[in-house]
Amino acid sequence: MNQQVQRLVVVGGGSSGWMAASLLKRLFGQQLDVTLVESDDIATVGVGEATIPPILFFNRALGIDENAFLKATGGTFKLGIEFDGWFEPQQAYMHAFGRLGKDMGLAGFHHTWLKARANGDARSFWDFSVNYQAAKQARYQPLSMLPNTNLPGLVHAYHFDAGLYAKYLRSLCEQWGVKRVEGRIEHVSLAPQSGFIESVDLADGQRIQGDFFIDCSGFRALLISEALKTGYEDWRHWLPCDRAVAVGCEATEPRLPYTRSIAHEFGWQWRIPLQHRTGNGLVYSSEHCSEDDAAATLLANLDGKALGEPRTIRFTTGRRQKQWYKNCLALGLSSGFLEPLESTSLHMVQSGLVRFIKLFPKHGINPETVDEYNRQSKVEFERIRDFIILHYHLNARSEPFWQRCRNMPIPPELERRIALFRQSGSVFREQDELFTEVAWQQVMLGQGNIPEHYHPLADSLSDTQVNELLNNLQTLINGTVEGLQTHDSYLQQHCHR
Ligand SMILES: Cc1cc2nc3c(=O)[nH]c(=O)nc-3n(C[C@H](O)[C@H](O)[C@H](O)COP(=O)(O)OP(=O)(O)OC[C@H]3O[C@@H](n4cnc5c(N)ncnc54)[C@H](O)[C@@H]3O)c2cc1C
C-alpha cells in the first residue's frame, strides 16, 4: 500500500491503547492525527500493575515526573521479584534488578562467588545485590551509585494501579490532542481488493476511518483476529496455566518495594503492593485446580482484608502469528499473552511501540517493513517465553502440576542454555534480549541449577583475596542500605497519593 499514514486509529482504552496513543502523539505531534476508540460498556482487563526498569525510558519519553506519576497512580517502587517456593517449598530467591557484586571483567562476578562457595563460603549470591538488600529491608531512595565507588546503586521499576495508569495517560493524551471516541465497535470494514482496514463502525452509526489501525482491544483481538483472521500459536504445552483469579486487599505496612510471586500446588500467586491497596492474583492451570479452589486459595493467602469478590480471567498463552498484518498492528493482549511472572506485558507494549516507531510507515506500508517487525516480535516473544519456562521447569517440588513442568520437553534453545550454565556457569545475553546475564544467573541459581565449575579466571584471585573482596562488598552494601530511607517514608514524603 503506498498510501501515506497520517490518520491513526487506536482501538481500545486499556493500558496498551493509552500507551500507544500517548507515545505516538508525543513523538509525531502534528504529523499524525490520533483517534482512540473505546467502549465504556466493555471493561478493561483491570490488571497489569507490576513493571520492569525499562518503563523509566517510556515515562521519560513522555516527559513524566516520577513523583507526580506515582502520586497519580497510587504507585510504589519495585526493586525486583521474589520467587517464593518455586524451586522447592520454604526456599526463596529474587530476580533483583540491576547488577550484582562487582564487574570482574571477562568472567562474571558469579564465578568469584562460585569459587568462594566451592571453598565452603556459605554467603548467598544475593548478599552482593544492593537491590536485594534494600528490597528485603523495605528501603528505597534514589541511589545511582554506591558511595565513593564506581559501583552502580539501585535500579527500579514501579507498581501502579492499572485503572489509574490508563486514566493518567488519557489525561496526557487529551492535552496533546488525541481525539477520544466512546462507542462500541460492531463492524470492521475491509477494502474489497486489498483487505486493508478502512474503518471501524460503531453501534451508534459513527464510522471511524483511518490509514493505520492499532488493535488494543484486549483478548478479543477485534481487528487482528476477528477481522483479519491472523492465526495464533498456542504455547500451553510449555506454560500450562490458563486462568487467573484476582482480588485487591487492604494495604499493609511496610509496603514492600518488590513484587512477590509465591508458588502454590497448582500455580502461583502475585502480591503487588500499592499505596492504597495490595493487588493479588493466583495464576493456575485449570487442569489441576477448579475455579472455586483457586479463589479459596487466593482468599486464604491475602495479607489484608479482601476488597470485593475475586474475579476470574481466562487466557491462552501464546502469540499472534503476525503482530503486524496489512494496515493493522496488534499491541497488548490482542498480540499474544505471556503470564505476568516477570511483569513483561506492559514492557512488550512499549517495545512493540518502539519497534513500530523505528519502522514507521509514513510513506506507505511495504512487505519488508512488516516482515522485519514481525521477525523481531517473534524473537522477543520467544526469548521471554523461554525465561518464564525456566522458572517452571527447574523445580524440585512434588505436586503433579510441578512434576509435569519438570518432565515436559522444553524448547531446544532453553535446553541448551540450561546445560551450558550447568557445565560452565556461562550465560550469554543474545542481541537486544530483554533479560540480562545477571537476570539469567539469578533464576538459574535460584532454581537450583548450580554450575559444575567456575571460570578459571576466578583463580586469578587467591582464596584470601576473594574473601577480602566479598567482605568489602558486603560491608559496603550493608552500610549503604542501612543508611537509606524506608520505602514507606520516601513515598509519604515525595509521592503520597
Ligand atoms: C492475570 C493478568 C495479570 C497481569 N499482570 C501484569 C503485570 O503485572 N505486569 C504487566 O506488565 N502486565 C500484566 N498483565 C498484562 C496487562 O494487564 C496488559 O498487557 C495490559 O493491561 C494491556 O491490556 P490491553 O490494553 O491490551 O487490553 P484491555 O485492558 O482488555 O483493554 C481493551 C480495551 O478495548 C476496548 N474494546 C474491546 N472491544 C471493544 C469494542 N467492540 N468496541 C470498542 N472498544 C472495545 C475496551 O473497552 C478496552 O478499553 C497481566 C494480564 C493478566 C491477564
From TrEMBL:
Pfam families assigned: Trp_halogenase (PF04820)
Protein name: Tryptophan 7-halogenase
Lineage: Bacteria, Pseudomonadati, Pseudomonadota, Gammaproteobacteria, Alteromonadales
